[in-house]
Amino acid sequence: FVNKATFESIMSNVMIKVLIYDSFHKIAEVRYGSGVIFAVGAYNYVMTTFDLTNNPLNDMVSYQVTDYQGRTSNAIIDVVSEEYELAVLRFVRVLSNRLPAVDFASQDSLIGEPVMLFGYIGEVMNSMSMGLVEDSNPNDVTLDRYMHTSIPSDLNANGSAIININNELLGIQIGIQDGFSYAVSISDILNFLKIYSDYHKLD
User: Fold this and answer.
1) Measuring CA to CA, how many Å separate 73 from each of 24, 92, 144?
2) Is residue 130 within 8 Å of 180, Cβ to Cβ?
3) pLDDT tens-digit map of 124-137
4) How confident is the model at residue 203 (pLDDT cuts 50, 70, 90)?
5) Residue 4 — pLDDT band, cuts 50, 70, 90?
């Protein structure tokens, strides 16, 4: 499972820091989460969660993205969708610092399929955690729409990529249940991108 291609995939991992300011321009809230570069052009495009970027009061907000080598860039919001619970940030692509985009799986995961999550887990950059795809919890039908896993994780990893053994994106962690990751599936991710923008045309 863990090979050279895996580490190349992990290079698309970023940590996201969200700074929310009050009316006096003082920091009122700081949020941390994860994201993954999924397309590149003049900008690097990062997918993360709606909750991390949500700003219902329209406060002044700044976004910082830190790549796998610890280099930090300012980012801006490109797209948000409460329906799909996803958001896209973008930051300027530096040619001397080329970051790869993660590849996409062509179909949803299968129960029992081995998967890996990489992101900002336990407040540690470039963390990796492994597990299997599992059935949803029959006692909580509200989470049926998500891909459930046995990957131990935490809320800082929301926005992290979950990949298969071919190092392809299968899901984006959206939350945890009993300490284990659940995610928006690749089919929902692709639907989100089709509706809001065709990033696959980026080069």
Assistant:
1) 24, 8, 36
2) no
3) 888 899 999 998 76
4) very low
5) low
Residue whose entry in the numeric block shows the structure tokens 């928006």: 184
DSSP structure string for 153-180: --GGGTT-EEE-TTSEEEEEEEEEETTE
Beta-bridge partner residues of 49: 86
pTM comes to 0.91
Which helix (H) or strand (E) is 193 found in, with range?
helix 186-196
Q: Read off the tokens for 129.
A: 């955690």
CB 47 within 8 A of CB 183: no
Specify whether the CB–CB gap between 172 and 49 falls below 8 A. Answer: yes
Q: What is the DSSP letter of 137?
A: P
User: Alpha carbon 63 to chain centroid distance?
Assistant: 14
